[in-house]
């Protein structure tokens, strides 16, 4: 099997991640609840994840990094807890995933939010396009840091500078662990991430960092292990955002994934992934009948996600043939991002997405290119 | 007479764990204990130290921005408020 679906979830996971999850599953796990040693160890294991991620993202106060089940939870928690009101203006990029677009549409329909989508220019989002749309009612901007369809990396820091005081909610689903974000604490206002993609952890892990000075209404209230004497939910972080027992087993794995990345270095992972992507794009560029969507092989403003279509093939048939005939796993369709497919002209047909990870090798990329060439030739016979 | 035990209570479990990391890094003497129910009904943990070490431990915590919300002096089963800034 050749795994080119790291944009959905990374595979394989480092052995340390598997070991950490197994160890956590082999012990009692009631973090922050009981006073015994097993509970304390569970708390320490979650705390380790918090510390490692704070280091990866350059966060000075790790207590503002709140865990939840995934990035969709984080984005929903941020958008629904921000205190948006009827008539408030919110900007988003046009390469957003449904995890942002759906909660924004719901707020628009239910609340009367004024949601404005900033169009991309040649597949790229420009800071000026955000700046010129700011109004006195703009309360928030939401940005997919990297498209999960085209791989285009948004100039997030420059967009934040263009936004000025307007807070930026950054969706780092495709970039956390893969793109250097070690100064995010200096310029991002709300950072949403998932644990099971570039951070190499298990599914069911993710989180939201909230910069000092911003208060969100918690998405749920309940047991927190703190202020037990009170029926009022704590208002301090991370407890305010972490009602209920956390996914201790998964977060133990996420801690190991983040530690692996810190040791290897995000720069090194990024260089490897960009090299693989360039190799793949170079191989695809002159293939008859193949259409690529997104930044080209020389582009640095991209992640290791490539979308394409092959003449004569539907995207689903092509992905099925890649798996059946070549053992290559990709993802076909709209990738939960119809807005992006509309932007690049692949809606509703979709595309086949190849997404590479830190454990892919050059030989696998070349095998992938050869497989596409063979499947392209089949349709020309 | 034995050096009295001081119990430091923090706002959250995360602060306690940050305090644990920081004090361990500095090699300072302390132990983590369940919060005594006599002083706080929470489910969490507290830092225990002997009173004579407070002038090492508290400044170290302060330098890391970690401030206990309250502190108690333990005499057997009795607890009395221990003023922070002691």
What does this structure look like?
The complex is a heterodimer of chains A (381) and B (86). Chain A has 381 residues and is α/β, with parallel strands linked by helices. Helix content of chain A is 39%, strand content 15%. Chain A has helices spanning 15-25, 37-57, 71-81, 98-111, 127-131, 156-163, 184-187, 248-264, 266-285, 315-326, 338-344, 362-380, and strands at 2-3, 65-68, 89-93, 114-118, 138-144, 168-171, 190-194, 206-210, 290-293, 305-310, 328-329, 331-333, 351-355. In chain A, helix 1 (15-25) runs antiparallel to helix 8 (248-264). Chain A is globular, with a radius of gyration of 21 Å. Chain A starts with a strand and ends with a helix. The model of chain A has no long low-confidence stretch (mean pLDDT 96). Chain B has helices at residues 13-26, 54-63, and strands spanning 5-9, 31-34, 45-50, 70-75, 78-81. Chain B has one domain: Alpha-Beta Plaits (2-Layer Sandwich). In chain B, strands 2-3-1-4-5 form a five-stranded antiparallel β-sheet, with helices on one face. The relative contact order of chain B is 0.28. With 86 residues, chain B is an alpha+beta fold. Classes of the chains: A alpha/beta (381), B alpha+beta (86). Chains A and B meet through helix 2 of A and helix 1 and strand 2 of B.
